[in-house]
Amino acid sequence: MLRRLELIWRSFGTGLFLAIIGVGGSLMAMTIFPLIALLSRDRERRRLRIQWVLHMSFKLYCRAIHLMKVADVRVVGAERLRDLKGAMIVANHPSLLDVVMIMAAVPNVQCVVKGGLWKNPFFRLTVEGAGYIRNDLEPEDLVRSCIEALRAGNNLIVFPEGTRTVRGRPMKLHRGFANIALLAEADLQMIRISVEPPLLHKGNPWWRVPETRTEFCMQVCDRLDIKRFMGYRFRSQSSRRLVGFIEEFYAENPNHGCTGTGAETPDRFGPEAGGLVA
Amino acid sequence: MTREEIFATLSEYLQEMFEVPADKVAPDAKLFEDLDLDSIDAVDLVVRLQDLTGRKIKPEQFKTVRTVSDVVDRVHDLLAE
After folding, report:
1. Touching A: B residues 52-81, CB under 8 Å
2. Confidence of residue A264 (pLDDT cuts 50, 70, 90)
3. Structural domains for chain B
4. Which domain holds residue A175?
5. How close B38 comes to chain A (CA, Å)?
6. How sure is the predictor about B61, in pLDDT bands with cuts at 50, 70 and 90?
């Protein structure tokens, strides 16, 4: 009986937290973000303030999910993100919570968002104010905007699969992110997200929750020095090396990122790999 | 340059820059589907072809390019201009 109740609670909670993102996000877009925009005429200051509010909101959101026992939310190695600057944050994308967890952990992040958000004046104010990059730009402009964001010291989140990860299938990565990192000469902060047992994954309705409570775990892995991949004659060769490397990285233990205990987690980038920043 | 020469040079570029296996480079091979190029690769290829032809290539001239032989045709036309 208690088990059943617990299941219903998690199912309800999952719906509730999805609703909070939708409703809460819209409310904030109509209240606090316009207020910030009004009070900070300076673009840079406005950007930092909006990003900070998003960061704190997501932090609170993750904590609430955890405290209300809807799911466990865990971050391993968060200290590695503290001084992150001008890096590309590369993550797999198993769930809807991924970007929330990353933004909760890193204050100064940029991401590429749906261009459709620009149609709504309130959302537009938020995403534009935060400096986010729209995905419907011409390819050259999109690449240029990403490079500019990185060079300006922002961290840029990318999910190189371009869509949510499908369980049990090897990740097929796009190469656009690799070209951007190479052109911007930005290091890559690797992140591995695991969701066990799966929840909010592609093709599964939100209310169908698993038997046991899900753990969302974000493991902050090593930071890759982009220079390791830059010695080739053509960038197209470098980007292929880099993509191959990252595909291999995620192919190892694709869904078990959180077996370890933090900085000591066994990672494959031993000293012999060389050239690492972190 | 004859079409054959252009094809040979292009084939070399594709193998060298985009690691396309030699046996996959055929006139009717599609750049994106068969040879696994993406839009950034296409831009890089155009830049390289500009060096080859010594002419500026406008992006729209390559918008309709799908296959290897399409590229050969475009380069051939450019050189004939």
Report:
1. none
2. very low
3. 3-80 (1.10.1200.10)
4. 2-262
5. 8
6. confident
Arithmetic mean of pLDDT, B54-78: 88
In a domain, A144, yes or no: yes
Kindly write down the DSSP assignment for every residue of A148-173, as one continuous string: HHHHTT-EEEE-TTSSPPPTTS----
In Å, what is the CA distance from A183 to each residue of A137, A226, A240?
18, 10, 14
- Give the whole-angstrom CA distance, residue A174 versus residue A239: 10
Side chain identity, residue B64: T
B35 residue type, one letter:
L
Please tell me whether residue A113 adopts helix, strand or coil conformation: strand
Closest chain A C-alpha to B17 CA, distance in angstroms: 6
Q: Which residues of A touch B (CB under 8 A)?
A: 139-140, 143, 174-176, 179, 233-237, 239-240
Residue type for A25, please?
A: G
Estimate to the nearest angstrom the gap between the alpha carbon of B39 and the chain centroid: 13
* Structural domain count of chain A: 1
Q: CB–CB of B38 and A176 under 8 A? A: yes
CATH code (residue A149): 3.40.1130
- For A115, what's the count of Cα atoms within 13 Å in the CB-facing half-sphere? 6
Which are the contacts of A20, defined by CB distance < 8 A and separation ≥ 6? A61
Of A143, A235, A240, which has the smallest distance from its Cβ to B19's Cβ?
A240
Pick from A68-72, A122-126, B58-62: least confident: B58-62
The kind and range of the H/E element at A193 are strand A188-196
Q: Which residues pair with A217 in a beta bridge?
A: A74, A194
A43-67 helix and A32-39 helix, angle to the nearest 10 degrees = 150
Pick among B40, B46, B51 to test the A interface (most A CBs inside 10 A): B40
If phi > 0 it is left, if psi is from -120 to 50 it is alpha, else beta; for residue A71 that is: beta
pLDDT in tens, A163-197: 788 777 777 788 889 999 999 999 999 999 999 99
**Closest Cα in chain B to A240:** B18
Q: Is the pLDDT of residue A155 over 50?
A: yes
Q: What integer is the mean pLDDT of A22-42?
A: 93
